[in-house]
Structures are given as C-alpha cells and as structure tokens.
Amino acid sequence: MKSRIEELLEKYWEAETSHSEEKELRRLILEVEGYEQEKALFGAISKFKAEEPKNLSVPKTKARKLNITWISWAASVAILLGSFWGWRAHEQNQAEQKAYEDVMQAFAIIQDNLSKGQDQLRPLNDLKYLNTTNQLFQLDQTTTR
C-alpha cells in the first residue's frame, strides 16, 4: 500500500495524476499512518473546497444586438469610399502616364531637330581643322595676288 501511495504522490507532484487517482491518493493517505504533511495539505484543500461558494450568479449584462441594417449601410459606405479612392488613384496614374508620354514626345521632337541641325552643320566640318580665320583669308589672298 505504501508503494502505491509513493507512486501516486510522485505522479501528483509531477502533475500527471487523473482525477480518480487523486481521489484514491486522498483515501489511501487518510487510512495509513504517517504522511502528516500530505494529510494536512489534502485537509486544507478540502476546507478550501468547502468554503467555495456554491451558487454564484453571474450578473447579466445587456447584450447588444448587432443591427444588420447599420452593418449593411456601413459596408456600403466602405465599398463606395474604396471605389472612389481606387478610381482617383487610377485617374492620377493615367494623368502621370499621359504627362510621361508628352515629355517623351517632346524629347523625340528635340532629338529630331538637333539631328537636322547637325546635318546642316556638316559642310562646316572642314573649317574645324583651320586654326584661325587668318588662314582662311590668307588662302584667298595668295590666290588673288
């Protein structure tokens, strides 16, 4: 019997006993001599259990009913606001895309005009090898003399 008590006490202190094993342990401890500390512990637990109030009444609170109408209105407003915000974001994105396309078109026109200007300046490329304008005029003076 003492070996069974020791086994149950070990399981009890490890918090591995079932409710039926705890009842058996209390019964065995009360029948056997010794185990004064355990008897005092289980006696105190029994006293606390006896002092526990039996009829506790939980105060009733008014449970708020969810009004489906208000929830549906709120959902509708949320959907409308979300749609409005999404549409505004889409329109802003479209405006930014249009501005980007306009700038790229302006850059293309500038590039075309720049290349036309470079083509018109091509005949003057020969002049870049002359050091000064005097060399140009000296060539003309030597041929006229």
**Structural class by secondary-structure content:** mainly alpha
Which consecutive residue ranges, at least 5 long each, have pLDDT under 50? none
Average pLDDT reading = 81
Alpha-carbon Rg, integer: 51 Å
Count of individual beta strands? 0
Helix content: over 70%
How would you characterize the largest beta sheet?
none
Distance between the termini: 146 Å
Tell me the series of helices and strands, N- to C-terminal: HHHHH
Please report the number of helical segments: 5
Q: What is the approximate shape?
A: elongated
Proportion of β residues?
A: under 5%
In short:
The protein has about 140 residues and is mainly α. It contains five helices and no strands.
Structural topology:
Elements: H1 2-13, H2 19-31, H3 36-51, H4 68-120, H5 133-144
Written description of the protein model:
With 145 residues, the chain is an all-alpha fold. Among the domains are: 2-51, no CATH class; 88-125. It has 5 helices and no strands. The protein has helices spanning 2-13, 19-31, 36-51, 68-120, 133-144. α1 crosses α2. The longest helix is centred in the middle third of the chain and has 53 residues, at 68-120. The chain is elongated. The model has no long low-confidence stretch (mean pLDDT 81).
Which descriptors would you attach to this protein?
145 residues, elongated, mainly alpha
